[in-house]
Write a structure and sequence with these properties.
The chain is mainly alpha-helical. The chain has four domains: 5-229, no CATH class; 248-298 and 308-448, no CATH class; 452-601, no CATH class; 619-711, Roll (SH3 type barrels), CATH 2.30.30.140. Helix content is 59%, strand content 5%. The protein has 30 helices and eight strands. The strands form two sheets. It has a six-stranded mixed beta sheet with strand order 1-7-6-5-4-8, with helices on both faces. A two-stranded parallel sheet has the order 2-3. Strand 5 and strand 6 (675-679) form a beta hairpin. The radius of gyration is 33 Å and the shape is flat.
Length: 727
């Protein structure tokens, strides 16, 4: 069976070109190769168990619509079981090895091509994502245990899901590839993917447990879950302490060990207290010594480690140099917050140096400006969050956009360190400078993507023109009796022909004039009067008319089968029209007849989204459904359409595209808001996505802001968890 390339091959796209390869030792590679060698046997067991379930479906396993397909699916799966097994095994090997090597799993896509992700293609990503969740299902514990071993094999001291290339997602994508070879019917592919994913969950539960046993027998020590690194795209931990609440950080001062539990002053009293008291000379000298250490670290030899000292390393000496309770509390809080910031796993390593160099500066602001702890939108926090969000976009250390941003931020903090006064105004000005630089970077990317932007602009204009022309042609076709096929051709395909030629050549020049004339001639030929002169005129007209129709079909690339069907219909109509004695011209239709004709010949309207009963996997088939996915659980603010409306160029997101999470930045949105262009991991490649595709991703939780939880919020959450553990 020939696969649908648009639906099946696209999902094979893996890590974008330019992404860093996964570090892997020879021992780790031997383990992966050993696991992949077992894929064929697993596929064989999966087919057998899937067939068993399909042949005796339990109650509720299949929807009413699916029951009409499962017998045919059973026959197809029996016939093509060897193809399924071979394709699953080959696809899994390709996906896993491309993940390790940091290359694309498919070389079919040309970087220079504009590839539009529409709703149909995004639906595949959605279904693969759901299948991965099903696979994870009962095997979650075994997966976590395996990650402790793969983290050790990868040479990491912490447990990280990103060190395991044999997770649920590649298995789900390989299953989809195999399902595409079994059947071309979307509903049948969906049934097969869902049932096979559930079966494979049980198989992987045993396989992953056995893999852990083998690794343990080889003397591999599992990692420890002291620090769990959330993989890209995973749902963030819910904030435990809302920093956006007014005075939230201020309220933490009294919880600091250095304060001895004394509640700090707040409001106007705190303003007067901090501004009026003279700083202890010993305390000021301690701050100056720390600033000097920061400067020396920043100006060290080229190539030497440039990580400045952490504020927490000097917390004891700073606390010993002052007896002021509020100062001690501020030092304690800021040093602990920066410890959390500098250990944040989402913050790219180059930006930890940038953040470290802001430590003493931020501390000086906090000591004199109560607003820093009273408001989450203080310029200090805004600058830190903005740097972190911008830096997190780029996952490749060699990305020129990342390199430029790091260099610019280094220059920025250099300038800030030389400023005579460390205050909110300095940070406000620095934030404005950073935003200006990011705007310039965005503009450069937009210029590089201009060919794609021009193509999408033309596509939107073409859609608008097609819609307008289709409406006009529909009005002209109302009084004409003809077949539904010809009516669809005129109002659909020919509207595309007219739109295309108008965009290419203009409205009042050839060949547009000829294609417009063909409309009048074709509609006249469909209502030919029963008169010898009319038949004579039609005979003379047909050769040029049919040639124009063929040329129009070729212009829009109408499939050959559709061309033949329309031309055969026209042949039958014109043959009948040329036969004498039809009984005169047909009478005008009454309004009732026109309405009935439109009902009989109306085009079937496609649903904006398939019902879940006909979707590849519906929520009812999942063992657990996230609360946010339940109907009615969202507020008006959660409306996907509103979220899409609010998207602006420069915004950064995580999207689930081509079967994996991808960090992107919105470069451009069309005037009509129907097309969006994103910059991706590879600076040479962009992602063009339709509005409806984005809405579907948003509905399924597969699109979210990159800074969904800010750096400062994450740091406060980390601090609160540590304080809770020490109490």
């Amino acid at each position: 069976m020939r696969r649908d390339a648009d639906q099946c091959d696209d999902i094979m796209l893996s890590r974008s070109t330019g992404q860093e390869p996964m570090p892997i030792s020879p021992k780790f590679r031997r383990f992966i190769d050993d696991e992949l060698s077992r894929a064929a046997a697993m596929a064989e067991r999966t087919v057998d168990l899937t067939l068993a379930q399909l042949q005796q479906p339990r109650e509720g396993m299949l929807s009413q619509t699916e029951r009409q397909h499962y017998l045919e699916l059973v026959a197809s799966l029996k016939k093509r079981a060897p193809l399924f097994q071979r394709e699953f095994s080959d696809a899994l090997k390709t996906l896993v090895r491309s993940e390790i090597e940091g290359t694309s799993a498919s070389s079919a896509e040309n970087i220079g091509d504009l590839e539009l992700m529409d709703e149909a293609r995004v639906e595949i990503d959605i279904e693969v994502s759901r299948a991965a969740e099903l696979i994870k299902g009962s095997a979650d514990w075994e997966l976590r245990e395996l990650q402790t071993f793969t983290s050790t094999l990868a040479g990491q001291t912490h447990v990280s899901a990103d060190t395991n290339p044999l997770g649920p997602l590649p298995y789900a994508r390989a299953l989809w590839q195999a399902a595409c070879l079994v059947t071309s019917v979307p509903v049948q592919r969906g049934i097969l993917l869902r049932i096979a994913a559930g079966v494979m969950s049980g198989e992987l539960k045993k396989a992953w447990a056995a893999a852990c046993t083998r690794l343990e027998e080889q003397g591999i020590e599992p990692g420890i879950y002291r620090t769990v690194v959330i993989p890209s795209g995973a749902a963030p931990r819910a904030p435990t302490f809302d920093v956006t609440r007014p005075g939230a950080l201020e309220s933490l001062l009294s919880t600091m060990p250095a304060g001895g539990g004394v509640r700090s002053q707040s409001g106007a009293t705190a303003d007067r207290s901090r501004a009026s008291h003279v700083r202890n000379p010993a305390f000021e000298q301690a701050l100056m010594r720390l600033e000097d250490l920061m400067r020396r670290a920043a100006t060290g030899p080229i190539g030497a480690p440039r990580m400045p000292p952490q504020l927490g390393e000097h917390r004891a000496s700073l606390l010993a140099s002052t007896s002021e309770t509020v100062d001690r509390q501020i030092v304690d809080l800021l040093s602990r917050l920066f410890e959390a910031v500098l250990s944040d796993r989402r913050l790219p390593a180059p930006f930890r140096t940038v953040m470290a160099r802001l430590q003493v500066s931020a501390l000086r602001v906090a000591l004199v400006d109560p607003g820093l702890l009273e408001a989450h939108d203080h310029p200090v926090w805004l600058l830190m969050n903005r740097i972190a969000s911008a830096g997190e976009t780029y996952s490749n250390d060699t990305d020129p956009r990342l390199t430029a941003l790091v260099a610019w931020c280094d220059t920025l903090v250099d300038d800030m360190a030389r400023a005579p006064t460390q205050d909110a105004q300095l940070y406000r000005q620095s934030l404005a400078r950073l935003n200006a630089f990011l705007s310039e970077q965005l503009h450069e990317q937009q210029l590089h993507a201009q060919p794609a932007i021009d193509a999408l602009t033309r596509a939107e204009r073409r859609e608008d023109l097609e819609r307008h022309l289709s409406q006009r042609l529909t009005e002209q076709m109302v009084p004409i009796r003809t077949s539904a096929a010809i009516r669809r051709f005129v109002t659909g395909a020919w509207a595309k022909v007219l739109a295309e030629t108008m965009l290419r050549h203009g409205e009042k020049v050839e060949p547009t004039v000829g294609y417009l004339k063909a409309v009048d001639e074709l509609l006249w030929s469909l209502r030919l009067p029963d008169h010898p002169q009319s038949r004579k005129r039609l005979l003379a007209l047909l050769p040029s008319l049919l040639q124009r129709i063929r040329d129009g079909m070729a212009l829009i690339g109408l499939p050959e089968a559709e061309r033949r069907a329309v031309l055969d219909e026209l042949l039958a109509v014109h043959t009948e029209a040329l036969r004498p004695g039809k009984g005169g011209e047909e009478p005008e239709l009454t309004p009732q007849q026109i309405v009935q004709q439109l009902r009989d010949e109306a085009l079937p309207t496609a649903s904006t989204r398939p019902p879940f009963s006909e979707s590849l996997i519906d929520l009812s088939s999942m063992e657990t459904v996230p609360a946010e996915a339940m109907p009615g659980s969202g507020s008006m603010d959660d409306d996907p359409a509103r979220r899409i409306d609010a998207m602006a160029p420069g915004d950064r997101y995580q999207l689930f595209l081509h079967g994996r999470w991808t960090r992107v930045q919105l470069l451009w949105r069309s005037v009509g808001g129907r097309f969006f262009l994103f910059a991706g991991v590879d600076p040479k490649r962009s992602h063009s996505v339709t509005r409806r595709a984005l809405e579907r991703l948003s509905e399924e939780g597969l699109m979210k802001p990159l800074d969904d939880v800010s750096l400062v919020q994450r740091a406060v959450d980390s601090l609160m968890r540590k304080l809770t553990l020490t109490q």
